[in-house]
């Protein structure tokens, strides 16, 4: 029996505000424990929350970028539960009237473009962190750090419309790319600024009702999400094939063991007792506010990809890679504006440039490279001033020094030799030095031409124009 | 000023005037009150914390400022009391609970900050029902406060310590809080003036929350003018409280002593049916007659949903409270039950030991009302009924300027009389609760006494942000009825 | 509206309150009585009535995204029933 997976993803994205959602504490990451705290975010008796305007601005950006319907009036609610990292005994979140509903995200799948609908987008505060004392197993205590408490989060919930781990990964990457494009989230899964939980179930293909779902947590990279989904789908199918039943439960992804494991169920079923937070007043979003935010929305990754393919005639694969980062895409366009060979510029960016960026773990804006550098290298190649091979060498120097490629070509004498007489002289010498090979060629074994080309290039320290070398050799070798 | 004149009979207004004229120093006044607290408060028990040294130090500062010619307005150098619900940085703040019995706040409430900026001297933190949940100040972890007029009786609550202290001459004035009548009812039962402003008039920042959508701070004083003077000091928009309202604070004092001619006074008929002590009914009607003589037009009005207010309140307030009190978990401050190896055990025992029975009862009530499957039947329903109650008032205010009712259905009852039956206790706030639900301002002032010589209070309710109307009407009424004065040793009125 | 002792115990678990047997018995009766009294709200037809969560209607109360650090953090930590450095120490969570 064929099964299909039904997956819904719940993403928590930390918003890049300076201060927390309900108090003026900084949101900076990696500070000493409890250094970003105040009476409000440690839940002292008598304190009150006041909403950070930028959190709303950011939520509106995400809502507009996903074509969600923005509620004219939305409210905050309290989600009540006890946990030491939750200082008030409740999380301020949105429940019945979230800021946005019903948007979508488009992804590219093997079957083509697919729309994944969003259930909702809402704002909420993050919880703190429990640190476990050294040798946790032996210790009877945990330590509580409230630095992360009340850092603003957007919760983005998809409909259960994802059908495979690959689609899940594509959805997550696209969502991450959008939030990063909007400049409202770092999108860093490893550091926890972009977190994902998954609801997974399987059902026989063709069945319209859902199977029993499990909730997956603790997946802190895109790869882990895909692996966890893969594992969990397989596990559920196995359970059913063996005549068993899937139990509704929360399971954790165990990175070391490469599998999901059941988190023992809590003492009681959750009953969060949501109710409108009486300390906060309703939020009313008017057209003026929406209009202002709309103006600040940049071209989004998918639209940019499509445009790059159309406008620059580069392959889908290239445009996807280039558009993963807004800075890289901008860089590409700026370079193409200076020299129109988009494909060659794309090639250089996708190979040499990305290799360096990945190795040094930097963004293109953090390097010495400018679009003019890349355009300059490609132009010199296209103009026959240098060969492609020399181009790569020049790129290395530019990347290290930030020097102008044209200057490097001149100073280091890397200009390609296109002087026909000079090449002909070297070529004739090579032919004279290798009479056997020349005979072989003349007898019809044209494959030996490559050998002569190599020898001539060697003789010119790689600077000879390869096309010219080919042409001259052929002429000299013909009987 | 003649030294024979006892300082504790002076109103805040007069004290401030003497202070400004340098006829008495803040230190003298403060020491006088501290010594009275020392002598009388063992019995009354209106204070949880008395700030002996700090108050004198602060009084000296205020005296020095005065000598330099720096006067911080009409409250400069006047000592006051504060309900132990306001966070005072560095000063123990218990909220009447064991769970906060060792809590020293790391910050100041806005009310305390404003009072300090106004030049007042804090005498101490006053007793209250635990987390303001009660109508008798008997639920305090630190023991009950006694009514100065009859020490076998309760002072009302939850701001019972503040009302008793004002009535017993243990502070010239105080600031309490009112969620369902907690300022007005004890003021009424102690013969003081108590005012709950419009919701949003006074910042709630730093005021330990009971029911966030109902809580408001307000003054408890000897006279209406004193209430106006104190209200001016604590009112105003606070960016730290999202529910505080940005409307200007009028000079409330200027509404004292005005003519009432033409003022339309509504008498809601639902407040004068069954269950009222006959003397309360009699004295309140006497006050209404006095208003008529002062030139008011008396109009009977109807607030048809009055009978549902109590049920509505006892869903909304405990629901909010059950959530507001979740933070008392033994993790960051306050009492923690020791010797637990697991967290949940620590939580449950900390809260079992730390909260008294009334607080637990309301947490249970509120948790139940919000729990799965019950929200719509209880909390949602109550919020809709709240709309009807508010609507009643707004319609009545189309025809009248203020409403006049009894503050409490009875005068002060005996200690222990109602502790066994929560519903009976809840009924003592039946006339004050509707104004909290509607967010309206209300004032209680003494209007007579019962057969036992216990004070009876009359309540005046006004439109949103029209506290000045209440002050105008109450001040005129007070001028014909007289203030209640200070209780003496035996509970008899001390002649001043 | 009678409430069972089981319901009282369930609510107490949600509210993290350990109750004695006497408290369970007392609350079972009292909460039952109180909710019985609350039933009077059902006399009112509220189908078309909006909820009033706040008596005063306010909208969009917001602060600007500006950082202001709280200087007196030691006064927060010094209230901790059990602290280690600047951290609050709690017993470990034992799932049962
Ligand atoms: Mg969430
Ligand atoms: Zn903070």
Instruction: Kindly state the number of beta strands of chain B.
Output: 11
Instruction: List the quaternary state of the chains.
Output: heterotrimer
Order of strands across the widest beta sheet of chain B?
1-3-2-4-6-5-10-11-9-7-8
State the helicity of chain A in percent bands.
25-40%
Biggest sheet statistics of chain A: 10 strands, mixed
Supply Rg of chain B: 21 Å
Reported for the largest beta sheet of chain B, the result is: 11 strands, mixed
Average residue-wise pLDDT of chain A: 92
The share of residues in extended strands of chain B comes to 5-15%
Order of helices and strands of chain B: HHEHEHEHEHEEHEHEHHHHEHHEEH
Number of strands of chain A: 18
**What best-fitting shape of chain A do the alpha-carbon axes yield?**
elongated
Straight-line N-to-C gap of chain B: 14 Å
Average of the residue pLDDT scores of chain B: 95
| Weakly predicted, low-confidence segments of chain A | none
Structural class of chain A: alpha+beta
Which regions of chain B contain 5 or more consecutive residues with pLDDT less than 50?
none
Small ligands present: magnesium ion, zinc ion
How would you characterize this protein structure?
The complex is a heterotrimer of chains A (479), B (496) and C (96). Chain A is elongated. Chain A is built from 15 helices and 18 strands. The mean pLDDT of chain A is 92. With 479 residues, chain A is of the alpha+beta class. In chain A, strands 1, 3, 7, 8, 9, 12, 13, 14, 15 and 16 form a ten-stranded mixed β-sheet that branches. A three-stranded antiparallel β-sheet of chain A has the order 6-5-17, with no helix packed on it. Chain A starts with a strand and ends with a helix. With 496 residues, chain B is α/β, with parallel strands linked by helices. Chain B is globular. The two termini of chain B are 14 Å apart. The mean pLDDT of chain B is 95. By secondary structure, chain C is of the alpha+beta class. In chain C, α1 packs across α2. Chain C is flat and about 55 Å long. Chains in contact: A-B, A-C, B-C. Chains A and C meet through β2, α1, β11 and β18 of A and α1, β1, α3 and β3 of C. The complex binds magnesium ion and zinc ion. The site of zinc ion has 7 residues of chain A, from loops.
């Amino acid at each position: 029996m064929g099964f299909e997976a039904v997956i819904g993803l719940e993403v928590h994205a930390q918003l890049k505000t300076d201060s927390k959602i309900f108090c003026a504490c900084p949101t900076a990451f990696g500070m000493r424990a409890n250094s970003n705290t105040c009476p409000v975010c440690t839940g002292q008796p008598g304190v009150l929350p006041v909403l950070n305007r930028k959190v709303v601005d950011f939520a509106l950006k995400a809502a507009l970028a996903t074509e969600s319907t923005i509620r004219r009036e939305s409210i905050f609610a309290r989600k009540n539960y006890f946990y030491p990292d939750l200082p008030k005994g409740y999380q301020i979140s949105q429940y019945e009237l979230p800021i946005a509903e019903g948007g979508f995200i488009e992804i590219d799948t093997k079957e083509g473009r697919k729309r994944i609908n969003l259930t909702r987008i809402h704002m909420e505060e993050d919880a703190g962190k429990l640190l476990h004392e050294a040798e946790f197993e032996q210790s009877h205590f945990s330590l509580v750090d409230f630095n992360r408490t009340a850092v603003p989060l957007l919760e983005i919930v998809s409909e259960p419309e994802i059908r495979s781990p690959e689609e899940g990964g594509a959805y997550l990457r696209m969502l991450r790319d959008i939030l990063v494009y909007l400049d409202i989230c770092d999108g860093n899964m490893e550091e926890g600024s972009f977190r994902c939980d998954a609801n997974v179930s399987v059902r026989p293909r063709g069945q319209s009702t859902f199977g029993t779902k499990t909730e997956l947590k603790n997946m802190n990279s895109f790869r882990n999400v895909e692996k966890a989904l893969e594992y969990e789908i397989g596990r559920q199918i196995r359970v059913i094939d063996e005549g068993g039943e899937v139990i509704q439960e929360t399971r954790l992804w165990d990175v070391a063991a490469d599998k999901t494991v059941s988190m023992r169920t809590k003492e009681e079923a959750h009953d969060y007792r949501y109710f409108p937070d009486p300390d906060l007043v309703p939020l009313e979003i008017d057209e003026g506010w929406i209009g202002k935010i709309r103006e600040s929305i940049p071209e989004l990754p998918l639209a940019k990809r499509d445009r790059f393919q159309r406008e620059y005639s580069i392959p889908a694969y290239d445009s996807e890679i280039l558009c993963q980062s807004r800075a890289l895409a901008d860089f590409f366009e700026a370079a193409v504006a200076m020299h129109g060979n988009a494909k060659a510029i794309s090639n250089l960016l996708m190979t040499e440039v990305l290799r360096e960026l990945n190795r040094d773990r930097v963004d293109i804006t953090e390097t010495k490279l400018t679009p003019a550098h890349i355009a300059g290298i490609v132009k010199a190649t296209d103009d026959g001033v240098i060969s492609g091979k020399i181009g790569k060498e020049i790129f290395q120097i530019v990347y290290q020094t930030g020097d102008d490629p044209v200057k490097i070509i001149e100073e280091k004498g890397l200009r390609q030799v296109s002087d026909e007489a000079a090449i002909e002289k070297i070529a004739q010498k090579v032919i004279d030095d290798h009479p056997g090979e020349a005979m072989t060629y003349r007898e019809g074994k044209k494959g030996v031409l490559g050998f002569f080309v190599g020898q001539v290039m060697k003789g010119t320290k790689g600077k000879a124009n390869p096309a010219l070398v080919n042409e001259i050799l052929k002429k000299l070798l013909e009987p | 000023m003649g030294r024979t004149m006892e300082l504790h009979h002076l109103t805040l207004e007069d004290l401030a005037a003497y202070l400004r004229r340098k006829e008495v120093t803040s230190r003298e006044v403060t020491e006088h009150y501290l010594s009275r607290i020392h002598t009388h408060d063992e019995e009354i028990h209106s204070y949880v914390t008395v700030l002996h040294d700090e108050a004198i130090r602060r009084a000296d500062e205020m005296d020095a400022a005065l000598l330099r010619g720096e006067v911080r307005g009409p409250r400069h150098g006047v000592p006051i009391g504060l309900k132990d619900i306001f966070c005072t940085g560095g000063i123990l703040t218990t909220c009447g609970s064991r769970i906060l019995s060792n809590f020293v706040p790391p910050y100041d409430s806005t009310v305390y900050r404003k009072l300090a900026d106004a030049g007042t001297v804090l005498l101490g933190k006053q007793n209250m029902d635990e987390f303001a949940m009660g109508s008798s100040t008997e639920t305090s972890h630190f023991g009950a406060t006694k009514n100065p007029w009859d020490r076998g009786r309760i002072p009302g609550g939850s701001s019972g310590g503040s009302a008793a202290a004002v009535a017993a001459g243990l502070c010239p004035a105080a600031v309490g809080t009112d969620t369902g009548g907690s300022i007005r009812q004890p003021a009424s039962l102690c013969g003081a003036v108590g005012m709950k402003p419009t919701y949003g008039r006074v910042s709630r920042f730093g005021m330990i929350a009971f029911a966030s959508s109902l809580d408001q701070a307000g003054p408890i004083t000897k006279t209406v003018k004193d209430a106006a003077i104190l209200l001016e000091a604590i009112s105003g928009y606070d960016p730290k409280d999202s529910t505080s309202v940005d409307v200007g604070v009028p000079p409330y004092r200027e509404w004292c002593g005005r003519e009432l001619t033409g003022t339309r006074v509504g008498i809601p008929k639902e407040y004068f049916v069954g269950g009222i002590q006959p003397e309360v009914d009699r004295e309140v009607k006497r006050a209404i007659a006095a208003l008529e003589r002062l030139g008011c037009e008396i109009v009977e009005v109807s607030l048809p949903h009055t009978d549902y207010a109590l049920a509505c309140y006892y869903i909304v307030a405990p629901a909010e409270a059950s959530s507001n009190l979740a933070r008392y978990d033994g993790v960051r401050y306050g009492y923690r039950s020791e010797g637990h190896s697991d967290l949940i055990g620590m939580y449950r025992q900390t809260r079992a030991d730390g909260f008294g029975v009334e607080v637990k009862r309301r947490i249970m009530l509120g948790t139940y009302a919000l729990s799965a499957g019950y929200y719509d039947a209880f909390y949602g329903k109550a919020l809709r009924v709240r709309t009807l109650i508010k609507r009643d008032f707004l319609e009545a205010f189309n025809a009248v300027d203020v409403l006049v009712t009894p503050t409490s259905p009875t005068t002060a009852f005996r200690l222990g009389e109602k502790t066994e039956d929560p519903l009976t206790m809840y009924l003592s706030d039946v006339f004050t609760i509707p104004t909290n639900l509607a967010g309206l301002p209300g004032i209680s002032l003494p209007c007579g006494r019962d057969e036992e010589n216990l004070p009876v209070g009359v309540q005046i309710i006004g439109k949103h942000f029209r506290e000045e109307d209440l002050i105008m009407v109450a001040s005129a009424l007070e001028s014909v009825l007289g203030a209640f004065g200070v209780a003496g040793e035996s509970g008899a009125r001390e002649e001043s | 509206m009678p409430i069972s002792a089981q319901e009282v115990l369930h609510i107490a678990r949600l509210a993290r309150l350990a109750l004695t047997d006497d408290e369970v018995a007392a609350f079972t009766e009292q909460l039952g009585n109180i909710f019985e009294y609350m039933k009077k709200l059902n006399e009112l037809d509220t189908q078309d009535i909006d909820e009033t969560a706040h008596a005063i209607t306010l909208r969009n109360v917001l602060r600007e995204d500006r950082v202001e650090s709280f200087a007196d953090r030691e006064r927060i930590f010094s209230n901790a029933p059990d602290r280690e450095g600047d951290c609050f120490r709690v017993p470990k969570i034992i799932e049962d």
